[in-house]
């Protein structure tokens, strides 16, 4: 199996997105004179990129108000768990997950065995991110990253870094810069990898010499599994369990950390006990409170594998949606497949 990253600093940017890939004139060059964009171009030229091609590409990028609106109101910050779970845990998404697993049974099984990651989690990530490839996003990646790098100060450094990663990705993978589409945050493909994740974790899982997570489900499945393995997924270990908490529990202990810091023994000393036996008390866990509009909140303990899921999206709501979707898919898949 080849996991190739074909990089060369001598090709310069023109070899990856030559003028032939760009329209003759920019339709709306609203970043051509933007001071942050010009400074970005200068930095990339210092790294060896060709100025004229890079200026032409940046001039093609368009500022999108809808992107700025979306990033200011992510579902993970404006919805409670009851509202959030309705988006991702409907029966149709479960049915589609089982169908996706059946269609790609050999690939999912091979990825699970090779990387040591639960097959249902691989499937669930793709289900949460893009409904198994049905909705991978319609924003041009160059527009998303330029808008957020140059016109979204709270995270301009991060997205400027992703725009830099995109330039290297375009060169390494021979991708067309203006045809790439994805989410409002510049994430691409079945598993919604941002450019740095594409460069670092995408794999050529079908040995055809190309790391294609955009249209090739085989590479996408292998890449999601590789991402989890590289973030230290613990094969065969639990993810999360419901917890019993005392009535006087200090709220400062709840949902404050994604990374587990207290052991089960320490939680038990605080009166927090798992409703399902977990064995070794030296395991670390984080405590979450999942709230609803129409019924009492639930408390859950998230273990190390739960934290690994949050490395994909730093939200306990997101990780719980992935986990519960994976469990629902696994249970239905086992019923249907014996």
Describe the fold and architecture.
This protein has 338 residues and is an alpha+beta fold. Strand 6 and strand 7 form a beta hairpin. Helix 7 (91-103) crosses helix 9 (119-130). The chain has a five-stranded antiparallel beta sheet with strand order 4-6-7-3-5. A two-stranded antiparallel ribbon has the order 1-2. The protein has 16 helices and seven strands.
Provide a concise account of the structure shown.
With 338 residues, the chain is of the alpha+beta class. The protein has helices at residues 12-16, 35-46, 51-60, 65-72, 75-78, 81-88, 91-103, 105-115, 119-130, 141-151, 156-173, 195-201, 217-230, 264-269, 304-310, 316-337, and strands at 139-140, 181-182, 240-244, 262-263, 273-274, 284-290, 298-302.
Defining traits:
50% helix; 338 residues; 16 helices; alpha+beta; two-stranded antiparallel sheet; Helicase, Ruva Protein, domain 3; globular; 7 strands; 5-stranded antiparallel sheet; 7% strand
**What's the CATH superfamily of the domain at 36-73 and 137-187, by name?**
Bacterial muramidase
Principal-axes geometry comes out as globular
What is the averaged pLDDT score? Answer: 91
Q: Per CATH, which architecture of the domain at 36-73 and 137-187?
A: Orthogonal Bundle
Top-tier CATH class of the domain at 36-73 and 137-187:
Mainly Alpha
Report the helical percentage.
Answer: 40-55%
Distance between the termini: 31 Å
**What do we call the CATH topology of the domain at 36-73 and 137-187?**
Helicase, Ruva Protein, domain 3
Order of SSEs: HHHHHHHHHEHHEHHEEHEEEHH
Overall radius of gyration: 22 Å
Point out poorly predicted stretches. Answer: 1-29
| Count of strand segments | 7
How many helices? The count is 16
Helix/strand-derived class?
alpha+beta
- Major sheet summary line: 5 strands, antiparallel
% residues in beta strands? 5-15%
Largest sheet: spatial strand order: 4-6-7-3-5
């Amino acid at each position: 199996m080849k996991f190739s990253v074909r990089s060369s600093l001598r090709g310069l940017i023109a070899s990856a997105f030559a003028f032939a890939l760009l329209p003759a004139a920019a339709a709306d060059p609203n970043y051509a004179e933007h001071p942050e964009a010009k400074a970005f171009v200068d930095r990339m030229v210092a790294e060896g990129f060709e100025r004229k091609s890079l200026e032409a590409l940046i001039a093609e990028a368009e500022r999108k108000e809808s992107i700025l609106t979306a990033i200011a109101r992510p579902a993970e910050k404006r919805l409670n768990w009851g509202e959030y779970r309705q988006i991702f845990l409907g029966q149709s998404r479960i049915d589609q997950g089982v169908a996706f697993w059946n269609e790609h049974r050999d690939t999912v099984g091979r990825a699970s065995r090779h990387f040591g990651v639960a097959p249902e989690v691989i499937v669930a990530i793709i289900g949460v991110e893009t409904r198994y490839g049905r909705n991978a996003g319609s924003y041009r990646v160059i527009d998303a990253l330029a808008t957020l790098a140059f016109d979204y100060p709270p995270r301009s450094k991060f997205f400027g870094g992703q725009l830099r990663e995109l330039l290297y990705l375009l060169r390494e993978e021979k991708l067309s810069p203006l045809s790439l589409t994805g989410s409002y945050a510049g994430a691409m493909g079945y598993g919604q990898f941002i450019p740095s994740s594409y460069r670092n974790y995408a794999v050529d899982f079908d040995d055809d010499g190309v790391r294609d997570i955009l249209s090739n489900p085989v590479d996408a499945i292998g890449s999601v599994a590789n991402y989890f393995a590289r973030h230290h997924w613990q094969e065969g270990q639990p993810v999360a369990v419901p917890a019993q908490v005392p009535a006087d529990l200090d709220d400062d202990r709840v949902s404050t950390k994604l990374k587990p810091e207290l052991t089960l023994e320490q939680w038990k000393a605080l009166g927090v006990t798992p409703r399902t036996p977990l064995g070794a008390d030296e395991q670390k866990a984080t405590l979450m409170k999942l709230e609803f509009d129409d019924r009492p909140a639930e408390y859950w303990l998230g273990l190390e594998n739960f934290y690994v899921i949050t490395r994909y999206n730093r939200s306990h709501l997101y990780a719980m949606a992935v986990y519960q979707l994976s469990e629902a898919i696994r249970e239905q898949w086992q019923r249907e497949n014996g």
